[in-house]
Predict the 3D structure of the following.
Amino acid sequence: MKKLLLAFTIIWVAALLIPTASEATPLISVQASERCDTCHVKPDPSDPKWVEENYSLAGRKCTLSCSACHLNPTGGMVRNRTGLYYGTHTLNMVKVPRDFAPIAGKLGDLGDTVMLGGDFRTMHLFTDQSGKSESYYFPMQADLYAGVRVMKYLSLQMQAGMERGGNTAVREYFALVHGLPYNAYAKAGRFIPPYGLRMDDHTTYIRNATGLDQSDPDSYYGGLEMGIEPLVFYAQAAYFYEDRPPRAKTGNIKKGFSAMAGWRGLWLQLGGSIMKVQNYLVNTVAPFETTDRKMYGASGSLRFRNLSYLFEFDQLEDETSSTGSISTTRGRVGLNELNYLIMEGLNLKLRYETHDPDTSTHGDTTRRRTAAIDILPYPFMDATFQYRRTDEPGAKFKDYIAMMHFWF
């Protein structure tokens, strides 16, 4: 037991010393669809009376949404007690020993008032472009999160970490009203608007081509978001605006709204999203131009035993106004991902992505193919190894990626 505690201590110290945006992963939501025992002592979903006798519809907290494991209803940041338990007792090859469970279940949990969390990632990238090879090793993420329960239904949350890519040290912060009937909530502050699959990989086209890349400071807005998640149904909507000084003092501030709704069932998840942003792009050099963006899409998943399929398809429309004329550019992005859970803590992944920036132009589509293996050997850590081939117009890339992730 002493050796085991020493090993965990070394892992923790290493995670805090390695310089490295926490995101909830939709795949975990899909693969957790039959893990009722995470929350219930003796679940018996085959008996309708068991559900009816123990929970009213308005009072049930059962959900496959991000809020099952995170304090943030749209995912990422602080993990709640369920998330900590699930991450240490279910996801990994080696489970938390019984005599260590009371400690593991409370890491970051300082009672009912304060909860802390963190994500630390390092990555080694070897890339080959047309025979020219380069290798990089760099800290990818070092984020800390804090959640403070001010009163029963009101919490304050914050995400802080490395300044990277122009991002400020503090990226997301908001007040959250939660714990309402039907899993309803409301939050006000700074956040990424709800839309589509919130993947942890910010390089996917469904995140960076849509302007929802968590590594990009322009993806964060100030605003108000509300949602409701009664059982398998969900709906979320947000009004937001650019909370930084107007670019180049043009006075054209980005603002807009987004909404998504759908169904998250045990084997099928299906939803739709829409988003509109005014002044998405502003060109201050003559001729003066402003671009408004509208996009809408469908996303979801299908699960059969250990096999899971995730998808998202989005249509983008950019309307540019310049000296009295208006032009529209239409683009598309898509993601198809197939996962096979060999065993708990070992997952195989195949992914195919497309990005067509202008559907009226022939031959400008970028395609990317990814093969990966996700390994979760012990609690609080995981590793990902990827091979990625990208075919751009006039260029081809091959990437080999190794990434380590420590969390609490």
